Amino acid sequence: MEVHTTTGKQRLNRLRPLSVGFVIILVCCLSAIVFAGTVGSGDRANSMLQDYPEGELGEIVKLGEAIVMNTAEHPLSKQYVGNKLNCTSCHLDGGRHETAASFLGTATAYPAWSPREQTVITLEDRALNCFMRSQNGTRPPNGSRVSVAVTTYITWLSQGSELKMNGEKPLGPNHTPALDLEGIQPDVARGEELYTDRCADCHGDNGDEEPPIWGADSYNDGAGLSRNAKLASWLKVAMPLDDATLTVQEAYDLAAFVNSHKRPHFVLSEHLPDDAKLGEYNGTVK
Ligand code: HEC
Ligand code: HEC
């Protein structure tokens, strides 16, 4: 009778594929742990966003995202837009960008005190105000489908962040960081040179291309970006697109140059709908 014995070598051969598999699994686990440890809280918030909510709620999140990405053309929002911009023109990547007017975590700051309206406003109010100023359009009615969709999308981008209402200004935890401009003077002529070098390829010599940054089809002079300090801080983290490498001085010079051009003049009453459609505008109507 033949006795089957397993030699040491045979055992080793049988074990080898097993141990190779084990090592691969081990390496994967370790790198996952290391990766989880190195990503910032913003990345973590982002990675939680991969799934849309179930059912109708998810559909409204997607609708809100579509409006944010294509505000000037979307059938639900275009009637409220008075220029060629979309929310994503400034809230880069539909608000998923971590610093350029980010929507990540934004909903957690609301209701918030607003110095401009001199009252406490909701996230919905805040989004609708961008329609009047940055989009140079008309304020959609509170509770309208466009308003609910956009607000739902922004709230979804805030999941997992801690609620912390802002008692000083209507800005979320990841808003564009302000620059320290003390002692720095902006120079329009220098801004013009920089513009030709670093911006005109995309925005055109007349600032009216893809998307327009001055003139009739851009934001009006009531918008946040019409203030040089605000525009400089946004340019610093956002432009040139995918290569935001301006120095503070350059960003300020460019802001002064861009905002030295004509743009629509903001008069609040011209951007409010008639009473029946207003719901309740809770700022002071001048
Ligand atoms: C011309 C540029 C521009 C456009 C277009 C624009 N916004 Fe804004 N918006 C801003 C800036 C600048 C701020 C200030 C936030 C910051 O500095 O991070 C802001 C703030 C906001 C905030 C508050 C953010 C916070 O941190 O609390 C919301 C909400 C918002 N916008 C919604 C919208 C929506 C919705 C649209 C499209 C209908 C839109 N915005 C279009 C420039 C713009
Ligand atoms: C590679 C092309 C490109 C370059 C270069 C570039 N931009 Fe932009 N810029 C864009 C695009 C595209 C957007 C809108 C973002 C989007 O839709 O994703 C934008 C948005 C803007 C906006 C806000 C929206 C608006 O139309 O008002 C301003 C202001 C702006 N750019 C200024 C500048 C300045 C100043 C420079 C030079 C430092 C510059 N950009 C360089 C492509 C560019």
How would you describe this protein?
The protein has 286 residues and is an all-alpha fold. Among the domains are: 129 residues, Cytochrome Bc1 Complex, Chain D, domain 2 (Orthogonal Bundle); 71 residues, Orthogonal Bundle (Cytochrome Bc1 Complex, Chain D, domain 2). It has eleven helices and two strands; from the N terminus they run ααααββααααααα. Strands 1-2 form a two-stranded antiparallel ribbon. Strand 1 and strand 2 form a beta hairpin. Helix 3 crosses helix 6 and helix 5 crosses helix 6. The chain is globular, with a radius of gyration of 25 Å. The N terminus is likely disordered. The site of one heme C has 24 residues, from helix 4, helix 8 and helix 10. Keywords: Heme, Iron, Membrane, Metal-binding, Transmembrane, Transmembrane helix. One of its GO terms (molecular function) is metal ion binding.
Notable characteristics:
42% helix, globular, single chain, Cytochrome Bc1 Complex, Chain D, domain 2, 286 residues, 11 helices
Q: What are the secondary-structure elements, in order, as H or E?
A: HHHHEEHHHHHHH
> Which value, in Å, is the CA radius of gyration?
25 Å
N/C terminus separation? 106 Å
Annotation field: number of helices: 11
Strand content: under 5%
Mean pLDDT: 85
Q: What is the highest CATH level, the class of the domain at 47-175?
A: Mainly Alpha
Q: Any idea what the shape is? A: globular
Spans where pLDDT lies below 50 across 5 or more residues: 1-18, 20-24, 26-45
Fraction of residues in H or I helices: 40-55%
CATH-level-4 superfamily name of the domain at 47-175: Cytochrome c-like domain
Largest sheet: 2 strands, antiparallel
Question: How are the strands ordered across the major sheet?
Answer: 1-2
**Helix-and-strand structural type:** mainly alpha
Number of strands: 2
CATH topology-level fold name of the domain at 47-175: Cytochrome Bc1 Complex, Chain D, domain 2
